[in-house]
Amino acid sequence: MRRPACIEFSMENKNLMSSKATIKKDDFIIYINKIGDQNLYLTASVTEKPKDLNTTVKTIYHELTKILLEENMRIVHERLFGNVSLQKEVIDSRQLILDEGGIQDNLPLTYIEGQPCWGVGFSGLQIRAVHPEGPDEKVWTIYDNSEACGRGWKQNGNTFLMLQNVHGTETSYYNNDLKKSQTKHMFDRAEMILKSQGAEYKNVVRTWIYLADILDWYDHFNEVRNEKYKQLKMLPDSNNGFLAEDIYMPASTGIEGKNPMRAAGVMDILAVIPHEDLKKEVHQTAGVKQKSPYRYKSAFSRATSVYDKGIKHVLVSGTAAIDDKGISLFEKDTRAQIIKTAEVIENLVKAEGATMQDIYEATVFLKYARDLPLYKKVAEEIGLSEIPQVIMVADVCRDELLFEMDASVAINF
User: CA angle 112-260-320, nearest 5°?
Assistant: First the structure.
């Protein structure tokens, strides 16, 4: 894989369709990616154990607040990764700085157990913000039983809905039967919230799903999701006469991740209601090096693409080292798994006209913290070291898989 050049534009480059910048401090990096005039993606990656967690979180949010205010952007998606035991401490520091900056109160967010490689702490965060321009464009908060659970926005004639932290119940997650029940409730709740916004689940283009103790019950999770998608007529009752690649399903990440509610799982959901004239502006990519996961009963697509005002966003699912039959590759060889995963993603986005240089947001999951130096070395070799990414320790959906990565890219078309 060819290593991309390191591109750094100042935020003053407002005439560029896309601009990039970084802010580097002793213990964190902020990646700033402005896509067109209306979309801003911010990734804060904590690169080493902070001397003082509260100070680091406040400093990160101070920088983010300045950027958001300068660019006149409004947050529509915010996800934080850190140990659940530190959630209150992190959120309190965040809220203090947002309040000082006058950023809107009661913004929904998702907090996931994303353990940093040095042990207990905070790994980083991802924010999407938008700037509606026209008189009919706006941003609103979505509520479920008076609880903020997402943001909606109208942009270029399309309606976007981002649900956050959707879960089933707050029951303890140590029983598989309860996990399955919670999962069903989680999908039912998502469907209900989408309907309240004039959408259907078929409008979903991307899900991010974080499961507590994923290795204990991932097959059960897939059973529930498959059944729900059949109920929604997104999957056929029988595979007879169907190719898995012909069935539309959202892109998805499914990864280990506990949550503060002690729910079996939580998910974030992006849905798009296209303008009537833009019905074909959302499509899925079945994959190049890997075939559809539904061939082995996992209901998601390798990627989905969304077109918006001259920009194509390619939303890449969580990807690991498996072959086109769904068999895990390179057991116990982390280096080979990293390279294979990057190859799969590179070929997938290439099919959509993009390159690894076009990544504006990524999450990297290592099964073992000890593999961080190896990942950094391989990332340097293959051109991944400069991409906006949050790195954390998490189990992948199979015990033998040691590495997973998801990504989002954007290109002009």
Answer: 25
